[in-house]
Structures are given as C-alpha cells and as structure tokens.
Amino acid sequence: MAVNAAERHAMDRALHLAARGPRGANPQVGAVLLSPDGRVIAEGWHHGAGTPHAEVDALSKLAPGEAGGATAVVTLEPCNHTGRTGPCAVALIDAGVARVVYALDDPGVASGGGAERLRSAGVDVESGEQADAAHALIAGWLTAQRLGRPHVTVKWAQSLDGRAAAADGSSQWITGPAARADVHRRRAEADAIAVGTGTVLADDPALTARDGDALLPHQPIPVVIGSRPTPSDAAVHRHPHTPLFFDTRDLRAVVADLHTRGVQSLFVEGGPTLASAFIEAGLADRVLAYIAPVLLGGSRLALTDIGVGSIDEARRLTVDEWLPLGDDLLAIAHPAHATDPAEDPQNEGAA
Question: Residue 301 belongs to what domain range?
C-alpha cells in the first residue's frame, strides 16, 4: 500500500522530533503514531542512550489498547534486539499496531531485521519514505555502524580558477560573510574538526564554531594532523575542548582512533594537503566546495595530488545541491555511484 498524505506529513514531524535527541552512540530517531483514520495520537523521540526508543516513547503516552490498528511512522527501522531496552518491533506488535512506515533500514547486525519480524506478525510495512532526509540526520551514526569510522566531510574554499590562496599565501578572505557563516554553522554540526599542521602554522585557526564573535553552543573537538610541532601559543590551544594531535600520515589510523573516542562526524577544514590526502585515501563521504567569483592564478591550488593519473581515474562526484551564499556558490557533493559511503568503491577498505 502506498504511503498516504497523512503518513508523509507524519514523517516530516518524526524527522523534526528526531532532531531533538542528542547525538551520540545511539541514532536520533523520531516516531509518530496515527489512528486508523489518520489522526496523530502520540509522538516520541529517543532521548539518549539507555532511555526508551522513539517508538516506545510514543507508545508510553497511550492507554492500554489505544494503539490497536494504529500506524507507526518512524525515521529508522524498528530495532529487533534486546540491549538496555527491548525490541521496538515487539513493542509495536504487542501494542496492536497494524502498519509501520519507516525511512531507513537499520544497518546493525544485531539490531536490524525489525521489518521482517513485523511482517511475520502480520503488520503491514512500508520503507524508504523520506530516506534522504533521514540519512542526512544520522549520517555519522550510519557510517560508524557500517565502516567503523566517522562520516567525513571535506571542505575547502576556492577562487573560480581553483586556487585556495594568492601567490603570497594569503587566503583571508576568498569567500564572503554568508559563506563563512555557513561554514561555522556546519562546524557546529560536527563532532570534530581537522586541519593539518601546515594550516595551523600558516593561519593559526581557532577551529571554533562561531556566530559573529560568540561561540555557538556546540563546539567540535579540534584535531591537528601532521608531524610539525604546534606552537604552545597557537589559538587551537585556547579551544573549549582539548585538541587531539596525530603525528602520522596514516589517516585510516586517525579516523579509527576518533571512532573509539565516539566521534561520528569529522569536518576536514584544510589545508589543501590534508583535504587531498583524505580524498586520495577514499575517506571523503561528502565534499563542500565554496566557490568565490574571484581569479587568483598562480600555483596554490585548492587540491593537490589525489592519486589521479588519467581522466579514467577521475574521482567522480554526484552534486547534491548548488547553494548560493551571497556572491559565492557552495557545491555539496558525494562520491558518484554511492548513496552512502559503504556502497562507494572509492571507500574500499575504509574501515
């Protein structure tokens, strides 16, 4: 049975509810329960590890038997395992829910399979509704589950002719205030932000997420990668979080280490050497290219060697969005032929 208008509206609401939950070891999930005639009768979301999952949170707001014949609209496939809480699939079955509409399959080996359990109990199940929006919300958690590393966004700013700096090395500011504000908002959405030691020495970045001069509520953990020493008075040492330093060229070891620390999303800020290394290693799940309508010429390219020797080896991207930001343009893209990093051949061996 096709998804109806009431269910689509409920999924919009469920995604909004999911975003209220904290980012962490568990995914952000929202749920809306509809009566047989399409009215919203309960809502819920996951409030954090150890608390009831979204479906159970919604069911808890109903009297016994009130969910009979209802439809549950959920942003992630109801789980099928017992951890600190019981299986949501069983809770829905026991409550008498007749139909479940969800956005994304649960990739967990232990937690997945809820849809099949529901179908086996006679519940009608529909999947894939607003999957892209649900994926964007929990991309970090999904990558951590599938690949054992954070979801990596590689960002750079460039002139129209592909330069990251002028001939003398100056780069502030290639882009305008709207683009810079967008960068800070996206920094605040990440668990960690990474730069190379060359960027620390050249630009002395604070690596904070700001709104003007004020710090945003969430600050990413600063990560510095490279073998050159960082001055003791560098701005990164004044960050609200203690910086992490990695004296290594092995980026797979870096992201594996960050994964053990609970980092699910990494924002790679630069410079060109580090951004290129992440792309060459097949670790870039998303690319943000801020393009300014200026020409700089010279040799200071936004990217250096990414392991492409011929046009046949080009790293193909699929553009998700072109976003105007004042006079600048943001290209948001991901590796071509992949809906998520686990399906991208350029990410082979990324775990």
Answer: 149-347
The chain-wide mean pLDDT, for the chain, equals: 90
Q: What's the whole-number mean pLDDT along residues 272-291?
A: 95
Tokens at 15, concatenated: 């995604």
> Would you call the peptide bond into 198 cis, given omega within 30 degrees of 0 as the criterion?
no
Instruction: Give residue 182's Cα distance to chain centre.
Output: 16
Do 124 and 177 lie in one domain? The reply is: no
CA distance 104 to 14: 13
Q: What is the CATH number for 324?
A: 3.40.430.10
Other Cβ atoms within 10 Å of 2 Cβ, number = 6
Burial class (CB in 10 A: 0-12, 13-18, 19+), 60: exposed
Average pLDDT, stretch 191-219? Answer: 93
pTM of the model: 0.81
User: pLDDT tens across 60-115, in order?
Assistant: 999 999 999 999 999 999 998 776 667 899 999 999 999 999 999 998 766 778 99
Omega of the bond prior to 271 within 30 degrees of 0, cis? yes
Q: Within 13 A of 157's CA, how many CA atoms are on the CB side?
A: 22
DSSP string for 16-35: HHHTTSPPSSS---EEEEE-
8-state DSSP, 121: T
Catalytic residue set: 55
Compute the distance between CA of residue 98 and CA of residue 124 in angstroms, rounded to an integer. 6
SS3 (DSSP) at 180:
helix
Other CB atoms within 10 A of residue 255 CB: 27
Tens digits of residue pLDDT in 227-262: 999 999 999 999 999 999 999 999 999 999 999 999
Three-state secondary-structure class, residue 328? strand
Among 103, 137, 171, identify where a domain stops: 137
